[in-house]
Amino acid sequence: GAGVSQTPSNKVTEKGKYVELRCDPISGHTALYWYRQSLGQGPEFLIYFQGTGAADDSGLPNDRFFAVRPEGSVSTLKIQRTERGDSAVYLCASSLQRGGPSGELFFGEGSRLTVL
Amino acid sequence: GDSVTQMEGPVTLSEEAFLTINCTYTATGYPSLFWYVQYPGEGLQLLLKATKADDKGSNKGFEATYRKETTSFHLEKGSVQVSDSAVYFCALRQGAQKLVFGQGTRLTINP
């Protein structure tokens, strides 16, 4: 498929553990976004990459959250010392270049994280 | 900061009914406005968009008009189908920045 791919689709972990979530964007899309969606809420912005660099990380809730995109394609969201409040669906989206003000973001199906 | 407020759900309608889902926004400047839809078991996908005041976005029988004077972007459809059952999200975007979403409205259409 040519869409945004996220793995794993489901992750159950214990409080205090470390978790990595992977996003493989659409080929050729240079912009990549991470969002978090809690039950019954809209997606909340976490971080945005343009190429390899984080252009805006203002949505990361604290220093336990970190994301990388070393080669400007695949991105990994890393969560240290997970807490029960981190349980949510983590969404990744990509778009062409910056996409402009009307540019479409293409979303993956998300990674559901459950922290016990 | 910028924000989007949507009509609270869930909304339940019968097939062929008229649909309105209200959306209002708060933003500095002139954002682009979007409706995204999330069908069961699928990722978010763009339904329609409008980039400036008085623009009307339309797709799959859905319409929404960008109203600057009322800071609104209400979603409408004249005759809904069972296949329209989904969660609908209103969103705005300033320039090339992040999308800001509303909380979503779950729509269920009964046959």
Number of helices of chain A: 0
Secondary structure tally: strands of chain A: 11
In terms of per-residue confidence, which ranges of chain A show pLDDT below 50 for 5 or more consecutive residues? none
Main β-sheet description of chain B: 6 strands, mixed
Please state the CA-atom Rg of chain B, rounded to the nearest Å. 13 Å
Helical content of chain A, roughly? under 10%
How far from one another are the termini of chain B? Answer: 41 Å
Q: Summarize model confidence as the mean pLDDT of chain A.
A: 92
On the 0 to 100 scale, the average pLDDT of chain B is: 93
Total number of helices of chain B: 0
Structural class of chain B: mainly beta
* Percentage beta strand of chain A: over 45%
Biggest β-sheet description of chain A: 7 strands, mixed
Describe the model.
The complex is a heterodimer of chains A (116) and B (111). Chain A has 116 residues and is mostly beta strands. Helix content of chain A is 0%, strand content 47%. Chain A has no helices and eleven strands. In chain A, the strands form two sheets. In chain A, strands 2, 4, 5, 6, 9, 10 and 11 form a seven-stranded mixed beta sheet that branches. Chain A starts with a strand and ends with a strand. Chain B is mainly beta. Chain B is built from no helices and twelve strands. In chain B, strands 2, 5, 6, 10, 11 and 12 form a six-stranded mixed beta sheet that branches. A four-stranded antiparallel beta sheet of chain B has the order 3-9-8-7, with no helix packed on it. In chain B, strands 1-4 form a two-stranded antiparallel ribbon. Chain B starts with a strand and ends with a strand. Chains A and B meet through strand 5 and strand 10 of A and strand 6, strand 10 and strand 11 of B.
List the helices and strands and how they pair.
The complex is a heterodimer of chains A (116) and B (111).
Chain A: E1 5-7, E2 10-13, E3 19-24, E4 31-37, E5 44-50, E6 53-56, E7 65-68, E8 75-79, E9 88-95, E10 106-107, E11 111-115
Parallel strand pairs in A: 2-11
Antiparallel strand pairs in A: 1-3, 3-8, 4-5, 4-9, 5-6, 7-8, 9-10, 9-11
Chain B: E1 3-6, E2 11-14, E3 19-21, E4 23-26, E5 32-38, E6 45-50, E7 56-59, E8 62-65, E9 75-77, E10 86-93, E11 99-101, E12 105-110
Parallel strand pairs in B: 2-12
Antiparallel strand pairs in B: 1-4, 3-9, 5-6, 5-10, 7-8, 8-9, 10-11, 10-12
